[in-house]
């Protein structure tokens, strides 16, 4: 616990918990109290981590996820594509200068990964092929947690533009200093439901919804 608290203190730039003058109890700092709301909201998204397992078992009808998130053996169709950008909070000490490859690798990165032990993301395969690597400081299981973390830290995150554009008032984005494959958003369903009339109707409805990006 002490190691985890030390890492959080370093990340947030605040002691978070301080000893009470009398006794061994700890009390939260003002910064820790201010974090309760964003953290509570972020924790609500944790339930989506189990989607892939449920899909494999036919636990629900449709799954909308990235191409990498579709479980093997599922039927799927593409909903659209988007470009990856690097996001940072407004007022970030890096400033607004264009990214260079070396500068990108030297930043402290936040990565979205539903696998708790996986400290790599979409960009790491490319960087490895170029003989480079980036500093991954923290991972979160869902993209919905990213804006809150970025706004409270000096971390940066590479993600599809559509997933961050709604937070433009607090987050700014930059073009990557290298070519990357586009992000693909997919609609998947269990093979046993391929001819199911109700599921077919749901699939058609999902495909006709306005997309937040250009296909």
TrEMBL record:
Superkingdom of origin organism: Eukaryota
Pfam families (alphabetical): LysR_substrate (PF03466)
One GO MF term: DNA binding
PROSITE patterns reported in the protein's UniProt record: HTH_LYSR
Keywords linked to the UniProt accession: DNA-binding, Transcription, Transcription regulation
Domain HTH lysR-type: 1-27
InterPro entries in UniProt: LysR-type_TF, LysR_HTH_N, LysR_subst-bd, YidZ_PBP2
Family matches, as SUPFAM superfamilies: Periplasmic binding protein-like II (SSF53850)
Protein's UniProt name: HTH lysR-type domain-containing protein
